[in-house]
Every structure is written in C-alpha cells, then in structure tokens.
Design goal:
The chain has helices at residues 7-20, 55-67, 82-95, 105-129, 145-160, 272-281, 298-301, 304-307, 311-320, 325-339, 376-387, 398-405, 411-422; strands spanning 35-38, 72-75, 77-78, 140-141, 164-174, 179-181, 187-200, 203-207, 218-221, 235-240, 243-251, 263-266, 342-355, 364-373. It is an alpha/beta fold. The protein binds zinc ion. Residues 174, 176-177, 356, 358-359, 361 line the site of zinc ion.
Length: 423
C-alpha cells in the first residue's frame, strides 16, 4: 500500500463509477416528492473560478434529498454568455494583433462558437473533478437546438401576446463593443470634465457635450423661472460655429433651474432626458453620432444651403466629419473660442458618467430600432407570487431588490454590479 493517498489515482475512477452506475439520475420508483435543482449555468468563456464553489451548497442539498429517498435530479449546463464571450474572444484576437472586423460575420460566429464549446468541455471536466453529483445525461449548452427553438417560440408568443414590440427609442449603446445595454446593465462613474458655458444668442447655456450642439432642436427652461418667462414660445436667432440657426424656446417642468444658467439645449437624438422632452413637444430626432462613435456631418456637407454659407463653415464641417466624439469636442471648443462664443469653462465640474461595464467606454445614448419587453404585465404576477409566499428568497433581503427591479433582475446580477463599482 502507498504511504500517502494520491487523489489523482482514485478520484477520477471513483467519479466515473458513480456517474456510470446511474446514481446521479432520479429514482423513478420512489413515491416521495421529487426534488430538482437547475445548476446556474457558468459562462463558457473561461474556466471555473473560486466563486463557483457555491455549487457545493447545491450538491449538499441534492445528496441529502437523494439519501432521504426522494427522486432527485441536479441538471448541469453551460451558458454561451453572448456578448460577454465575444468580449473575451476579442481579447484573444487582440493578442494576435487582430480584431473582429478582420472576419466576416459567419466566420466570427463559428470561431466564437467553437471557443465556447471547447470551454464547455473544460468546465464539464472541472465540475466532475469537484465531485458534483450532476445528472450528465441531461447536460445542456444554452445554444443547443432545443434551447434555441424554445427561445424562438417564446419570442414569437410574446410578440403575439403584445409583450414584445419594436420601437425607435433612445438606448444605451457602447460604440466599442457594438451592443445595446438595459438601464440596469450599465455602470456609473463620477468624473471631472470641463463644463462649457456657450453663448446662445442672448442666453448662455452650460454643457459638457458641446459637440452635440449642431443637432440641438430647441432650448428649454423651467416654466416658473422668471429670468426666461418672457421668452417661452419664442424663436431666437443664434450664431453658431457652422453658421446662424433658429432656436425655439420651450418650458418644461423637468428642466433644473439650478443647473448652469437654468436654460438647457435640447438634443433628442443624443440624450435620454432630451429624447423624453422631445417626445412631449413633438421635436425632431436628428442624429449626428453613429454606432461606431464617429460624428457624421454629411447632412450639413451635402445640404445645398450650406454651399451658400461662409466657406469657413463648410471647411469646419469637413474637418469634423468622421472623427471621434472626443476629437470633435476639442475642435469645436477651439472654433468656439475663435468665434468668441465660449463665455467661460468650469474645469472642475464633477458629474456622473454612464459607461460600459466591460470596456469602460462612455455609453452613447443613440436612437435605434430595438426590441423591448413590456415588463409590467410580466412583473405583476411574479411579484404577487413572492408576496403570497409561494416563492421564497434566501436570504430574505433579496426580496426587496426583486420587487423594485422587476422579474429579470436576479440577485447574482446585483452582486455583480457591486463588485464592478468597487473596481
Ligand atoms: Zn462596451
């Protein structure tokens, strides 16, 4: 007999023996109440980490119920993790000096698919090495045909039931990752940025985003702000970096009279509040930033009226066109200084910025066609089930989160957000 126990020599054989004997499959002969747990599928874009040790709790529950004679099953699986996997894969590509744009869509999809399938195999091995009593005859990958078909069927049903609809609406878009995020998925950072005070005709407007000024469709003030009450409903002429423009002045309760000068510019295409305000007053949505985070001035360059204007204006539009938001911001500020439009710059303005939780890139609010889920009719019965104690939360404090965020905000998502903020 060996002096020391060598786990490498025994554990694998022991696990194979357990698995092949069928003891991890439910005992259908038992008359007791069935007990099942669905393993929260780990993301198949990396190996398991220490956090996955929480599966031990599920294993203990499963083994306990099994020994008590209940028909018991613990179902294993791995998740494709969509955009998260793409992000990890892109890091691999970057190491080889490549990007996702070096491939056509189908090749990229197949390569990422192979990557996650390979990782799924590694994860399966890890779960087995941890001795988890999972029923492998039921293992599922979240892109298996039957799962994909269920997703299609559910989507179709939800469209028919009026729970899913498509709309042009302002969304959180990350130009770096090329994807849209729900409000709950984005991170918020406190950051110091210059606050520019720009002359708008006889008024002064404060903004951190002077580059969007070319697509302002109105100015807005608070209805009770006495400084501007005479101007509500009137149109003023404004001298801009690309020539004179007319601005209509609206009054809206949402305007904060304490911010800046109390008069704000309205850009429905690139700000969520402005978009909502624009819908209330039927203002046009006129985009200037594209999904790659570049500024598009073709609307100005190609407009015959622009040809009639001062050649400097056209030259400026051509200079800005196709550049990144940050580049254009710096250029516009310089041009505004030249024109004497900048009144002052507050270099120490601290504000909240919405960023991508993966890449930290600034989120661009863009108006895009997107699918939306009507949450209210779905959340109501789910919340009712919790109130009536038909569903219980462990630990109990997550019940509060569940009720405030709706059905799809799982506690694990909340825990994840906390770690991202502390990063
Ligand atoms: Zn991103």
């Amino acid at each position: 007999m060996e002096k020391a126990f060598s786990h490498q020599d025994h554990e694998r054989n022991l696990y194979t023996l357990w698995d092949s004997s069928g003891v991890f499959q439910p005992n259908y002969k038992s008359k007791k109440e069935p007990f099942s747990v669905l393993l929260p599928p780990p993301n198949a874009n990396a190996s398991l980490h220490a956090g996955h040790a929480m599966y031990v709790i599920e294993d203990i529950l499963i083994r306990w119920k099994r020994m008590m004679g209940h028909p018991t099953v613990w179902i294993p699986g791995t998740d494709h993790a969509g955009y998260e996997s793409q992000y990890v894969y892109e890091k691999h590509l970057a190491k080889q000096g490549k990007s996702r744009f070096d491939f056509d869509r189908e090749t990229l999809y197949n390569d990422i698919y192979a990557f996650v399938k390979n990782n799924s195999g590694l994860i399966e091995e890890q779960l087995k090495m941890l001795g988890f009593s999972l029923d492998w005859s039921r293992k599922t990958f979240m892109l298996d045909d039957h799962v994909v078909q269920t997703v299609y069927d559910t989507f179709t049903k939800m469209v028919k039931d009026g729970l899913v609809y498509r709309d042009h609406y302002i969304v959180n878009y990350c130009p770096k990752c090329g994807t849209t995020f729900a409000d709950l998925e984005v991170s918020h950072l406190e950051r110091k940025d210059p606050l520019y005070y720009m002359k708008y005709g006889q008024f002064t407007v404060a903004t951190v985003r002077p580059e969007t000024k070319f697509r302002d469709v109105a100015l807005a003030v608070h209805p009770k702000d006495k400084r501007y009450s005479d101007w509500i409903g009137k149109t003023i002429e404004v001298v801009g970096v690309l020539g004179p423009v007319s601005m209509f002045i609206v009054a809206d309760e949402e305007v904060d009279p304490e911010f800046g000068t109390g008069i704000m510019k309205v850009t429905p295409a690139h700000d969520a509040h402005d978009f909502a305000l624009g819908r209330r007053y039927n203002l046009p949505v006129t985009p200037i930033i594209n999904t790659r985070g570049k500024m598009d001035f073709s609307w100005y360059i190609n407009d015959p009226a622009s040809q009639q204007k001062n050649p400097t204006y056209l030259e400026r539009a051509r200079k800005y066109h196709g550049r990144s938001v940050k580049e254009v911001r710096a250029m516009v500020v310089e041009d505004m200084k030249t024109d004497g439009i900048i009144e002052k710059i507050d270099e120490n303005y601290v504000h909240n910025v919405t960023v991508c939780y993966k890449s930290n890139h600034d989120i661009e609010p863009l108006v895009l066609p997107n699918w939306f889920v009507k949450m209210k009719p779905l959340a109501e019965p789910a919340i009712k089930a919790v109130k009536e104690k038909r569903v219980k939360f462990v630990p109990e404090r997550f019940e509060k989160h569940y009720k405030s965020f709706g059905v799809f905000a799982f506690p694990c998502g909340i825990a994840l957000k906390k770690t991202q903020k502390s990063r």
